[in-house]
Write a structure and sequence with these properties.
four-stranded antiparallel sheet; 10 helices; GHMP_kinase_N_dom; Ribsml_uS5_D2-typ_fold_subgr; ATP-binding
Length: about 375
């Protein structure tokens, strides 16, 4: 809000106060859009993922690597608010954190541009990203945001595309994005874009702690240092079967990107070693997610005490989470938010409003094929 005071000190004229409130103007514009559109605003939960195991199996001719991984969503995620914009030329993105690009470098904007390109839609949006998932963490926060944006654009446009089409299109802007059109757990191959939905192989009430140092790992640099002849030789399908039979253990949580990531960021190797030693008997497994730099301790929500005691770790990101979230109960990764509640363990961090959009999540024109 901007206030301007005008007065005449040489006379007895009254002071005049001029008030300009840009938020009020924006809300009035949004209200005008609301009158004309059957759906004008959406608030969505955008969950992140961890890689329970990640095998790199080959290098492709196109320069990418083939992988085989168990992706699983967890209860941590961002909240994204979408509103139809009266603009016919551009989207506008805002966020609660610094350092996040707000132009077409952001996957949200890339996803909206992709949707318009594929469908011919002429709708543009105001988007606010309430960022809770750290960037450069190996948790797929940006990829999840992109999937959420595609899903939202499709809802606003009357479901011009099937979800299978959205999933296929999404691989054009990111290898991890197709996973977020799954039902929460998937065996992913290819670059990560080949997604095979599976029933939840892990007890959903297992707690975990996420520990991410301030430093991030460059995915490109990690892959650059990867040596295929030094990766694990364990059959990834065998790992999946072991998890289904016996659950999480250190023997199955293999990540072939750990050694190159530890070369890029030697302090990350030390952090994992200290967490493993301090949490012996407390964690079922300690491993890095994706290309880093998040270390995951599964089996306990409690971070090791040294993370609180050592000045070196005073700036680490700590988050207690669960494999469980409302995602499974609603059978969908992207979910409507009706109320956001605070909870250390992520229980009920969002609630789904089944009647907000086409009585979602029951069968709708946008339901999976």
């Amino acid at each position: 809000m901007v206030r301007a005071m005008v007065s005449d000190s040489t006379s007895s004229k009254k002071q005049v106060e001029v008030v300009y409130n840009p938020d009020e103007r924006i809300n009035k514009l949004a209200d005008e859009v609301d009158k004309e559109a059957p759906l004008s605003r959406l608030t969505l939960f955008s969950p992140c993922k961890i890689n329970v195991f990640l095998r790199i199996t080959d290098k492709r001719e196109d320069g990418y690597h083939d992988l085989a991984s168990l992706f699983h969503v967890i209860s941590l995620g961002d909240i994204i608010k979408f509103s139809l914009s009266p603009s016919k030329t551009m989207d506008r993105l805002s966020t609660n954190v610094s350092g996040v690009p707000l132009d077409d470098r952001n996957l949200i904007i890339k996803a909206l541009n992709l949707y318009r390109k594929k469908t011919g839609s002429e709708k543009f949006f105001w988007i606010h990203l309430d960022k809770r998932v750290p960037t450069g963490a190996g948790l797929g926060g940006g990829s999840s945001n992109a999937a959420t944006a595609l899903w939202a654009a499709n809802q606003f446009s009357g479901c011009l595309a099937t979800e299978k089409e959205l999933q296929e299109w999404s691989s054009e802007i990111g290898s991890d994005i197709p996973f977020f059109f799954s039902r929460g757990a998937a065996y992913c191959t290819g670059r990560g874009e080949v997604v095979q939905d599976i029933p939840p192989p892990i007890s959903l009430d297992i707690p975990m702690v996420l520990i991410k140092p301030q430093q991030a790992c460059s995915t490109a640099e990690v892959y650059k240092r990867l040596k295929l002849d030094q990766t694990s030789t364990v059959d990834p399908l065998g790992l999946l079967e072991k998890i289904k039979r016996n659950g999480i253990s250190k023997d199955v949580c293999i990540n072939d990107l750990e050694p190159p990531a530890f070369e890029v960021l030697p302090s990350l190797k030390q952090l994992k070693q200290r967490i493993t030693a301090a949490g012996r008997g407390e964690y079922d497994a300690v491993f890095m997610s994706g290309s880093g730099s998040t270390i995951v301790g599964v089996g306990s929500p409690d971070p090791p005490q040294f993370l609180y005691d050592d000045v070196e770790y005073q700036d680490v990101f700590l988050s207690e989470q669960l494999f469980d979230s409302e995602l499974w109960r609603n059978g969908k990764v992207v979910c409507l938010v009706s109320e956001v509640m605070s909870s250390n363990l992520g229980n009920n961090i969002f609630a789904c409003e089944s009647k907000t959009v086409n009585n979602y999540p029951p069968q709708t024109p946008c339901a999976p094929d």
